Amino acid sequence: MLILTTVLTTGALTLTACGSRDDDNKSDGNSGSSNTTVVIGVDAPLTGDLSALGLGIKNSADLAAKTANKNKTVPGITFEVQPLDDQAQPSVGQQNATKFIDNKKVLGVVGPLNSGVAQSMQKPLNDAGLTQVSPANTGTELTQGDNWKTGDKKRPFKTYFRTATTDQIQGAFAAKYLYNNAKIKQVYLIDDQKPYGAGLAASFKATFTGLGGKIVGSDHVNPDDRDFNAVVTKVKKSGAKAVYYGGEYPAGAPLSQQLKDSVKIPLMGGDGMYSADFIKLNKKAQGDIATSVGKPVEELDSAKKFIADYKTAGYKDAYEAYGGGTYDATWAIIEAVKLAVADNDGKLPDDARAKVLDAMSKVKFDGVTGPVSFDEYGDTTNTMMTAYQVDGGKWASKLSEAYKP
């Protein structure tokens, strides 16, 4: 029968579904028991302004683990998910990394949402040899180093992977779409000074000006502010035909609304804007544009089962922008565990973290978002991007293509 047990693991309270009390945790991971527990950590903002995206990440990871258990994807292994709330704060993310490291059953971590949080987690996880796969980080430097812009690409951390493509690709794709498809040549550039927003804006600017577009003004804002009338005044005087905002929807939504109150031009942003909450928070979102990684899962045959299973599971929160990528990120860890077990005569090896990390370079499967594999930097080989526009209170996809700058 199904028994719910409460397990206290390094500060996180986790409800665990087990086959029976007798066969729960028979093994610590090296005896070949029929029920060896492997934990997959999940780090995301589960409270606060970005919780809509974070809860979609948590639920999608949970669904992947439950599916693997149901299908006995790795014989003898039961997967559990340990979600921790990083509140979109780098310091909290670093604390969560320590908690995952201290829990020896954690063999992989999914997340985080924010590139700035990832920067705080990468080194401790790398030092511990603990695999990390983010479904949402797009900061190029996370995988290719700080000098990637000069062509000097060096992978900083061997444990870090992602199923989301980079801001180098996303910013360039956005610039090309705005210039060629939306026919907008004059843009006011704004970013929130965070690693994600600033990096995305820089990539956009390089491609947009290269195409012949003109940046008629630029500014920085505090992502915690909600009054943007001062910068809106500058935008109005600049003659801009659109604003490109490097940032996330909690600030992007009021910025857009205040912009429309003064001058009726669209605001464009990246995947940090692509959320239903952007529209909920912005009564004048009509015509605004966002790019996001991958193709809409609703348009993918490969995602039909994921969407149906998510609905059946009864999660009260939507899977949002990163649901499909999160499922694939979690499944990549599951596949790596499967390889490690198969190479050790069907048992979880004593040095499981090291073996799972070694297996990540061999992981290759058809996922929710399409083919999943990683290059020499840990980046996804899937560079599909999509441009969306708000129409009638919903995000409508306008263009999807595999893009390489």
Structure description:
The chain is α/β, with parallel strands linked by helices. It has 12 helices and 16 strands. The protein has helices at 51-71, 90-102, 115-127, 141-144, 167-181, 195-211, 229-238, 249-262, 276-280, 304-313, 323-342, 352-360; strands at 3-9, 12-18, 36-44, 77-85, 106-110, 131-134, 160-162, 186-191, 214-220, 242-246, 267-269, 289-293, 365-367, 370-372, 384-391, 394-402. The strands form 4 sheets. The chain has a 7-stranded mixed β-sheet, with helices on both faces. A 5-stranded parallel β-sheet has the order 4-3-5-6-7. A hairpin with a 2-residue loop joins strand 13 and strand 14. Helix 7 crosses helix 8 (249-262). The radius of gyration is 21 Å and the shape is elongated. 51% of the residues are buried.
List its salient traits.
405 residues; alpha/beta; 7-stranded mixed β-sheet; 5-stranded parallel β-sheet; disordered N terminus
Shape: elongated
One letter per element, helices H and strands E, the order comes to EEEHEHEHEHEHEHEHEHEHEHHHEEEE
Indicate the proportion of strand residues.
15-25%
| Low-pLDDT runs | 1-33
pLDDT averaged residue by residue: 91
Strand order of the largest sheet: 9-8-10-11-12-15-16
Q: What's this model, at a glance?
A:
The chain has 405 residues and is an alpha/beta fold. It has helices spanning 51-71, 90-102, 115-127, 141-144, 167-181, 195-211, 229-238, 249-262, 276-280, 304-313, 323-342, 352-360; strands at 3-9, 12-18, 36-44, 77-85, 106-110, 131-134, 160-162, 186-191, 214-220, 242-246, 267-269, 289-293, 365-367, 370-372, 384-391, 394-402.
